[in-house]
Each structure stands twice: as C-alpha cells, then as structure tokens.
TrEMBL record:
GO terms for cellular component: membrane. This is UPK3L protein. The chain crosses the membrane at residues 171-195. InterPro entries: Uroplakin-3. It comes from the Eukaryota. The gene is Upk3bl1. Keywords: Membrane, Transmembrane, Transmembrane helix. Coiled coil: none annotated.
Length: 229
C-alpha cells in the first residue's frame, strides 16, 4: 500500500537537525496503522538518482542494500528496522519522537552488519522513505522525502585570518588608540614615581631647641625656714 505520508526532518526547535554526517527525522507515528502485526518497518536511504528505479523486492542485508557499499555499489541501503510497537499511536505528549540517521560509527566498515546506521559519506543530497516488510514481502511504504542536504565543513583556506579584510580607517583608528593608551600609561607611571618620592623625602624635621628650667625658691619658704631656726 502507498501511504499518504512524506518523511520530514524533525522540528526546527530541536538542535542539530543536520550535521556533516547525520540528520534527524520525525518518527512515523500513526502512519502504519493499517499494517498487520508482525511487520517490520525499515528506513530506506538513497541517492536521488536511485529513487525512480528502486526495487522494493530487494531485501535488506543484500549486497545491493548494504550500507558499506553506499553509494557506489549500493545506491540505496536499509537500516533502523523496528516493529510497530516502537511507533505507538497516538504519540505521548511531551515525548521526543525522532530518528537520527547516521549515528553508528562502530559498524561503518563491518560488512557483517550491512544494515548499519553508519555516518553518511558526504553532504548529499539524500532521500528517504519508510518501508514495511512482512517477512520478505513489502506490505506498505511511504512517499520519498524531499532532498536532504547535510552541513559541509568550511575549508581551512576560507577561514578569515584575524586582521585580514580590515579597512584603512579601522587600522588608523586602532593605531591612534594604541598611542593614546601608551601616553596614558606613561603618565600614570610618572605620577606614581613623583608621588612616591614626595612621601619618602619631602618631609623635614628640625632639631628642637633645648628647654631650660630655672630653679627658684619662693620668699615665704625661706622665711619659714629662718623662723624655725
């Protein structure tokens, strides 16, 4: 059965929707509701030129559908197989229901795992669809997605070097500010030196004059002594 569903990237509120080797899809919740139990849902990843000639009867795990041959000898591969139990309907509120395509690195070169969900080999574009198999027989499929492009790393030569691309006015302004800062710094240093010399040697102390205390006797003390004699 051809199902009226087109796979899409996850919500834009989720970060990292596309990287250099992965992308994130919404899970096909409430899509395969008419499919009988026991079916297995597969994700098919293909290059655009393989879409029109894709053969649903070529099963997963075969050389024509192995990830390790993608995209040279296998223009499409099948991965992320699961049962309908993992795509319950309706979707629980608040639950993040996404699939990250290209997240397995351990099996990327392991030919014993042809259904590996390995990192995508280039920026794309890629197109995907979901395919339900009961045994080896296709029972339902979705539409193909729109082309999906991945991020590309900027070449080292394209990274702007600090200082390149500045105008002459910006360079002149930077030079003037540097000179003014140097003048201000020199002024502060001179002020600190002057203030320090004033504190250390600016105050003088004069020698105090000797204090002379004259001894005297009052007349009434002498008169009392004479009287006692």
């Amino acid at each position: 059965d051809k199902l009226p569903y087109t796979p899409t990237l996850a919500s834009t509120t989720l970060g990292g929707l596309t990287t250099a080797s992965t992308f994130v899809l919404e899970q096909p919740r409430c899509v395969f509701t008419e499919v009988q139990g026991g079916a297995v849902i597969w994700l098919v990843v293909a290059i655009p030129k393989a879409v029109d000639t894709f053969n649903d009867t070529v099963g997963p795990g075969t050389p024509e559908r192995a990830f390790q041959g993608f995209p040279t000898s296998a223009p499409a591969y099948m991965t992320l197989n699961t049962t309908l139990l993992n795509y319950p309907c309706p979707k629980p509120p608040g639950e993040i229901t996404v699939l990250r395509v290209g997240s397995e690195t351990s099996c990327a070169k392991d030919e014993r795992r042809p259904t590996c969900n390995g990192p995508l080999p280039g920026p794309g574009p890629y197109r995907v669809k979901f395919l339900a198999l009961k045994g080896s027989r296709p029972v339902a499929e979705t539409n193909w997605s729109d082309p999906i492009m991945l991020r590309t790393a900027r070449p080292f030569s394209g990274i702007p070097v600090m200082g390149s691309g500045r105008s002459a006015g910006m360079i002149a302004l930077t030079s003037i500010l540097s000179i003014l800062f140097a003048i201000l710094l020199a002024g502060l240093v001179a002020l600190l030196v002057f203030w320090g010399s004033d504190v250390c040697g600016g105050s003088t102390f004069s020698k105090s004059e000797p204090v002379t205390v004259r001894r005297y006797n009052t007349h009434h003390v002498q008169d009392q002594g004479a009287a006692q004699l």
